[in-house]
From TrEMBL:
Gene Ontology MF term list: ADP binding; ATP binding; phosphoglycerate kinase activity
InterPro entries named among the record's database cross-references: Phosphoglycerate_kinase (IPR001576), Phosphoglycerate_kinase_CS (IPR015911), Phosphoglycerate_kinase_N (IPR015824), Phosphoglycerate_kinase_sf (IPR036043)
Species assigned in the record: bioreactor metagenome
Lineage: unclassified sequences, metagenomes, ecological metagenomes
Family recorded in the similarity comment: Belongs to the phosphoglycerate kinase family.
Protein name: phosphoglycerate kinase
Cellular component, GO annotation: cytosol
A GO BP entry: glycolytic process
Gene3D superfamilies to which the protein is assigned, alphabetical: Phosphoglycerate kinase, N-terminal domain
Subunit structure: Monomer.
Residues of the signal peptide: none
PROSITE patterns in the cross-refs: PGLYCERATE_KINASE
């Protein structure tokens, strides 16, 4: 990695501004329903505290759209963090201004202060220079552990780095190392599995990966558009008619580039989009007019698992079928098994893909589970993320 890391800077006794992604789900009574994102930052925070840094935490929560919305207060998050880390977490009721400045100034080595929701100020998302400067004035270094927002040039992510040096936290470092390495210098053979509902969501990813991978495996709803492009009748399956030409182009590009593009040869069809639908596997040339393909078929699943066997790098984004319904989860489960069993460096990204993986109980067999939905997609599309670009170079 060509970026400085936490280990490259002397943080002992320093004030460190740590941008985290504590955008946690809450129920209507304001209780945190899942604290994974808080737990995920503990290694960075414990490291900083153990090195006697004074930690100033900043995050967004929800979409308050630039004004103070009490239900999006980070106060409950500060409380939960305090329980998880077993230390006091002080709380500033605004992220900038006299109070925040005084509290940051008084913060002693090893202490933690959490600032109120950054997005209570519209200047955060506008990347306002003065707001960035105010945030920067609280600390001597910035640490970015919020990969999930690193595709946004926001004040706490990008603007602040114009005033103080920023390095990645351990979570962020892992994202850069795994995704960055896979995309810039992958161990080969390199296989990617792309699925999910629509081609249109993943065009950029497919185009970028076509010039990097050895094998490209397509499943999910988007496979139907590719099947239609190959001339198969796909009944009532989800098809993006306006993307047929693009799908043809991508199939041609794969040929030109020598990429082994794999498409379903059988699918599980259903008579309606419902958990209690009638269903059965059929060959892709036998999809009846009023049925729809909701999963890859068993032969395809085996073929995909086989294709993953020798891979040294595997990137997976998007389920192979409507995994939320038991009857159409088998293709995704089979692929999850194959990825888990392979010796490859395996990287899984995407909210639904991670949910599907967790259902199989195989998450611990994956080398890296990427936390940022939009951010990991943009990296896979080959884009430079402003939050990563702004980190200090070695
Ligand atoms: P991720 O969140 O991992 O990036 P997507 O959001 O792109 O994945 O796609 C996930 C959705 O795609 C799931 O809700 C799943 O039900 C849907 N899906 C998968 N296969 C099909 C299909 N054959 N027809 C319709 N929807 C599908
Ligand atoms: Mg999704």
């Amino acid at each position: 990695m060509n970026k400085k890391t936490l280990n490259d800077i002397w943080i002992g006794g320093k004030k460190v501004f740590v941008r985290v992604d504590y955008n946690v789900p809450m129920d209507k009574d304001g209780h945190i329903t899942n604290d994974t994102r808080i737990r995920a930052t503990l290694p960075t925070l414990e490291y900083l505290v153990s090195r006697n840094a004074a930690v100033i935490l900043a995050s967004h929560l929800g979409r308050p759209k630039g004004s103070v919305v009490p239900e999006f207060s980070l106060a409950p998050v500060a409380k939960r963090l305090s329980q998880l880390i077993g230390r006091e977490v002080k709380f500033a009721s605004d992220c900038v201004g006299l109070d925040a400045e005084a509290m940051a100034k008084a913060l002693k080595p090893g202490e933690i202060l959490m600032l109120e929701n950054l997005r209570f100020h519209k200047e955060e998302e506008k990347n306002d220079p003065e707001f960035s400067r105010q945030l920067a004035s609280l600390a001597e270094f910035a640490v970015n552990d919020a990969f999930g927002v690193s595709h946004r040039a926001h004040a706490s992510v990008e603007g602040i780095t114009k005033y103080i040096t920023a390095v990645p936290g351990f979570l962020m470092e892992k994202e850069i190392v795994f995704l960055g390495q896979a995309l810039s210098n992958p161990a080969r053979p390199f296989a990617a599995i792309i699925g999910g509902a629509k081609v249109s969501d993943k065009i950029g990813v497919i185009e970028n990966l076509l010039s990097k991978v050895d094998t490209l495996i397509i499943g999910g709803g988007m496979a139907n558009t590719f099947l239609a492009a190959q001339g198969f009748a796909v009944g009532k399956s989800l098809v993006e008619a306006e993307k047929l030409e693009l799908a043809k182009t991508l199939i041609d590009q794969a040929k030109t580039k020598g990429v082994n593009l794999l498409l379903p040869t059988d699918v599980v069809i259903a008579d309606k989009f419902a958990a209690d639908a009638d269903f059965r596997p059929v060959s892709v040339d036998s999809i009846p007019d009023d049925w729809m393909a909701l999963d890859i078929g068993p032969k395809t699943a085996e073929k995909y698992a086989e294709a993953l066997k020798g891979a040294k790098t595997v990137v997976w984004n998007g389920p192979m079928g409507v995994f939320e319904m038991e009857a159409f989860a088998k293709g995704t489960e089979r692929v999850a098994q194959a990825v888990a069993q392979s010796q490859a460096i395996s990287i899984v990204g995407g909210g639904d893909s991670i949910a599907a993986l967790e259902k199989t109980g195989l998450s611990n067999k994956i080398s890296h589970i990427s936390t940022g939905g939009g951010a990991s997609l943009e990296l896979l599309e080959g884009k430079v993320l402003p939050g990563i670009a702004a980190l200090a170079d070695k």
